[in-house]
Amino acid sequence: MAAAFVLAACLAGAGHADTIVLKNGRRIAVSNVTREAGKVNGDTPAGRLSLPESIVARVEKDDAGAGPVTTTNLAAADLPIAPPPAGAASDSDPAVRAVVHDGAIDQEALARFDSQASSGSAEAVARAVVAESAAGQFAFGRGDIEQALGHAERALSFAPDQVTLLLNLAYLHLRRSEYSVASELLDRARRLAPESPDVAKLSGWADYGLNRLPQAVEEWKRAQQLRPDPEVASALARAEMDDQVETNFEEGVSAHFVLRYDGSAAPDLARAVLDELENDFESMAYMFDYTPAEPIAVILYTNRDFADITRAPAWVGAINDGRIRVPVQGVLTVTPQLASDLRHELAHSFISQKTHGNCAIWLHEGMAQWAEGKRSSREDAALLIDLYDHHDDPSLAALEKSWMGMPADIARVAYSWSLATVEAIVDAGAPMDLDLLLDALATGSSTEAAALSVLHANYTDLNRSTADYLRRTYLH
Ligand SMILES: [Zn+2]
Fold it and tell me: DSSP letters along 358-374, please?
């Protein structure tokens, strides 16, 4: 759970060497497929072709030589930054042993330490700090960031001027994408330890999360001067690149978003994108029963900048690496394609933040597609059922981690299967089950364990019910 390279890329319209299949069966080889305003466009040797969506059955991607269809997607909440150094207490400390034993936290022992501390002796206070810190570390090790946060807060309440406790609590807030709170804690830590490289390192993260790129660059440079650190080096490189590209960008702000866009993009488009996102925000806050703590950054790029920054191939659509990055070259209004890309990426933001980055990619992508409004097609269903019947259905366990390097055709099946699985979950129970799954993930549960506790189904059961659902719904 430390270095969390989350998610995969989200495919959009652009293409490599593709085939437009018309409803009458005709096939047309094209490249650079785009969908805009009800038209499917593509380049042919005879020039640019534009067809009404209504006559197009589907677009088939020919992936020969196109490489994997996924890219990594690194949520800002999950910059691969390790926790700051913990306090000095060792596992053999009697207070640590009293509180964490037999694979659990001894709540009674912990309560005893806490109440002794309120009597006031310096020794009792020190013991309570050690005990709460040990409980917090144990919870963190289990992936339960909320519980860890509770212990970190109590430890700090006993010793408000201990820098390691301030750093620890700030770190947990950063992991929860709560950058403003973290920033205040780090300011307090800075007053106590102005030369701490860890304060500078975490402050840079808070600034980056709050879209204060120049400040993030400054903090991380300072952190590097105080103590060179590979984690900081890569975060700094990324922030510098963003900062450079975005220097001349205009900025638009709405209640829940900070939007940056290239001066050459139309301001009207920026406004329309913000309106669209605000609408989506409300419905997703309802859908996911969650509201992100900070404004979400959205960057609109010309395609050239997008490719430079993300190093994504031309056929990749928008990307969410904690900031929603959307290529918009040549787009003047919010097209249906752009609207669904925005919804898809926004869903990733909600899921990442709600689960603190602890969500299997198949569920991430399944829910993002579902939230975007996508549903399985009859063709998808037929293919997936065929795979299931031949015992070639994807293993959800294999789809938990990065989809990077997956061949294109496999990735396409991964997307379809993930969507179908989420559809089947919704179909079988209440859409609320998805929220409950995310709640379980937020406490550090594995995705399969969450499925077992919420849906009473392991991965094998889920695949079976997905196949049943597809058969029932699409093939009858
Ligand atoms: Zn996606």
Answer: ---HHHHHHHHHHHHT-
